[in-house]
Design brief:
With 181 residues, this protein is of the alpha+beta class. Helices cover 51% and strands 17% of the residues.
Length: 181
């Protein structure tokens, strides 16, 4: 078959009319009961979907807040455990600073190391719990001894055996103290 014969044998596609013919304009179309019921059903469905969307948005917001809170809590717990692991080093440096030594360079080195450790703890938001001379607070202090002392006030801490630490209001280690009266 020649090319001309092939072109003649292919039927042409009918042209589609893109504009629908209407007998009456849309504003004059009669409203019957089924169209009104269908419209109400669509509105009810839309309201239902909108409610589902709002619930989903609220649920996501709660999830985001809960996740953020859990993340912060995990960070605080990890920081507290890490600081707790370094506190024996703090205690040893504190004992070393109290010992008398003839070597001034050694004493200065221990003081500088202790100062550096205190700076690191401060940067982490860890602070020492005030104890000596303070009133005993069972939420912050661990009383291991009791002594009668007329010079000291009621429930006053007269000696600190081990420093306590807290971060963000949470106690990492209680201060071990001696309480008077």
């Amino acid at each position: 078959m020649s090319k001309q014969e092939q072109e003649r044998s292919i039927p042409e596609e009918p042209e589609l009319d893109t504009a629908p013919e209407m007998d009456t304009p849309p504003e004059e179309a009669p409203q019957d009961q089924s169209a009104g019921g269908e419209l109400e059903a669509l509105r009810a469905g839309l309201a239902d979907q909108e409610e589902k969307f709002l619930r989903l948005a609220a649920e996501y917001d709660n999830y985001r807040k809960r996740s953020q809170k859990e993340k912060e809590s995990a960070w605080a717990a990890a920081k507290a455990e890490t600081v707790l692991a370094f506190l024996p080093v703090y205690d040893n440096l504190e004992r070393a600073m109290k010992q008398e030594t003839a070597d001034e360079a050694y004493k200065k080195g221990v003081e500088m190391t202790m100062s550096g450790l205190r700076e690191v703890l401060a940067k982490l938001g860890v602070e020492e719990i005030p104890a000596l001379g303070e009133s005993f607070d069972p939420n912050l202090h661990n009383a291991v001894m009791h002594v009668e002392d007329e010079a000291a006030g009621e429930n006053t801490i007269v000696e600190v055996f081990q420093a306590g630490f807290q971060a963000g209001g949470k106690v990492i280690r209680f201060a071990m103290v001696k309480v008077a009266n």
